[in-house]
Amino acid sequence: MPTVPRSLPDDWFGPLARASARLLMLDYDGTLAPFREERDEAVPYPGVRETLSAILETGRTRLVIVSGRAIDDLLPLLALDPAPEIWGSHGWEQRLPSGERHLLPAPGESTDALAQAQSLAESHGLAGRCETKPACLAVHWRGLSESETAEVRERASALWRPLAENVGLELREFDGGLELRIPGRDKGCVVEAILSGAPPGAFAAYLGDDLTDEDAFRALGSRGLSVLVREKSRASAASHWIHPPEELLAFLQRWAQCDQSRP
Ligand SMILES: [Mg+2]
Q1: Cα–Cα dist 33/208, whole Å
Q2: If you measure from the C-alpha of residue 179 to the centroid of ligand 1, how many angstroms do you get, rounded to a whole number?
Q3: Count of structural domains, the chain
Q4: What is the 200 CA–ligand 1 centroid distance (Å)?
């Protein structure tokens, strides 16, 4: 994959302003909120909540948060009232703006294997670094030194790889940790689900920073704006790249203005 050198085109909001329907899909950690050593302190950049609320208030955009976090983990950090639509745990769970929830069923064998992986991690000193969520178990190493990170990565990989291979689970690294996931859902599936329900002529955008967002960028393809939100560009399937938080906030504010100015 090529690196993404391009900023957004100057007139990107022209097609947005003219579109009959709008879809704004946003990753959370690293995109709307800066990383924190303590995961439960990762609140949005200043101005983000207000701007998202302004977009939600108009009711003219289907705004969706798409995260690897569990929804219950995300809601208090996002702290939007009313809360928007959220797809959590890499697309295994969905919360509608009404508060209605859907959890996709996972195979029992895979769920048992995740429970076993958690017991293994806990009995090998990783309990405090583990996060359990629907269809996924993660170990986090953000804030550790290079040598400590390598040690946690190796220990978790050694414990989980045999289980992953036996039962067919995915072992994937993300920015700050390693995840053992039940396959079959990812952020690309979420983008497909959202686009499949969109009216013709809808303007869609997906903003994300992490390797797990690449599935979403690929799923969106040429059907919308795919935007990598990072300090430094990297190889990505995204078509554009912006710096957080200034360019991110400018993007969201411009989106809100388009929504507000429409009759
Ligand atoms: Mg992220």
Answers
A1: 11
A2: 14
A3: 2
A4: 29
Ligand 1 center–CA 226 separation, angstroms: 14
* Same domain (yes/no): 136, 67: no
Please tell me the distance between residue 261's alpha carbon and the centre of ligand 1 in angstroms: 30
Domain range for 36 is 13-104+185-261
Same domain, 76 and 193: yes
Burial class (CB in 10 A: 0-12, 13-18, 19+), 125: exposed
Which of 127, 160, 181 finishes a domain?
Answer: 181
Residue 6 alpha carbon to ligand 1 centre in Å: 20
Which residue type, as a one-letter code, is found at position 52?
L
The alpha carbon of 156 and the centre of ligand 1 are apart by a number of angstroms equal to 21
Question: Is 2 a member of any domain?
Answer: no
Helix (H), strand (E) at residue 101: strand 101-103
Neighbours of 227 (CB within 10 A): 29
Predicted confidence pLDDT, tens digits, the chain (263 residues): 767 667 898 889 999 999 989 999 999 999 999 998 888 899 999 999 999 999 999 999 999 999 999 999 999 999 999 999 999 999 999 999 999 999 999 888 999 999 999 999 999 999 999 999 889 999 999 999 999 999 999 999 999 999 999 999 999 998 899 999 999 999 999 999 999 999 988 999 999 999 999 999 999 999 999 999 999 988 999 999 999 999 999 999 999 999 998 55
Are residues 211 and 85 part of one domain?
Answer: yes
Note the pTM of the prediction, 2 decimals. 0.89
